[in-house]
Automatic annotation (TrEMBL):
Enzyme Commission code(s) on record: 1.1.1.42
Residue numbers of Phosphoserine PTMs: 106
Superkingdom of origin: Bacteria
Entry annotated with the keyword Signal: no
One Pfam entry name: Iso_dh
Official protein name in the record: isocitrate dehydrogenase (NADP(+))
Modified residues (N6-succinyllysine): 93
The keyword Manganese is annotated on this UniProt entry: yes
């Protein structure tokens, strides 16, 4: 990939401006997270390569949260991770463990709260060629909204 890796920016209209070689922070995750992340990264890199014929690529930047963060820094969610996620405007995250014991609640909920990710918005639509139990799947047009910052 030619060119320097750079951050995604937000323009005056609030729209993301994505460079050809964006830096995207990722949290590998706990438990099966490393296995999932390895496969995810392979798929995303291949999709970008195929879609842009080598003209674009992602520069991955690891940031820590969960057990890996705790074992490395003594914190479940280091401020550096929060700051990087805000600074780079996007991030991808694997599954994180919920610590047992007092003093910390779910790292997932903590991330949602500090980043103001209050809504989980899930559009639902039919993908042509995929079997469906619905009589007219092409007519499905809905969005599910879920409050995202409570510890449920």
């Amino acid at each position: 990939m030619k060119g320097k890796a750079t951050k995604i920016t937000v323009n005056a209209n609030g729209q993301l401006t994505v460079p050809d070689h964006p830096i995207i922070p990722y949290i590998e995750g706990d438990g099966i997270g490393p296995d999932i992340w390895s496969a995810t990264r392979t798929v995303l890199d291949a999709a970008v390569e195929k879609a842009y014929r080598g003209g674009k690529a992602i520069a991955w930047k690891e940031v820590l949260a969960g057990e890996k963060a705790y074992n490395t820094t003594g914190e479940w969610l280091p401020q550096d991770t929060v700051d990087s996620t805000k600074d780079y405007h996007v991030a991808i995250k694997g599954p994180l463990t919920t610590p047992v014991g007092g003093g910390i609640r779910s790292v997932n909920v903590q991330l949602r709260q500090v980043l103001d990710l209050y809504a989980c918005v899930r559009p639902v639509r039919h993908i042509e060629g995929i079997p469906s139990p619905v009589t007219k799947p092409e007519d499905v047009d809905m969005v599910v909204f879920r409050e995202n910052t409570e510890d449920v």
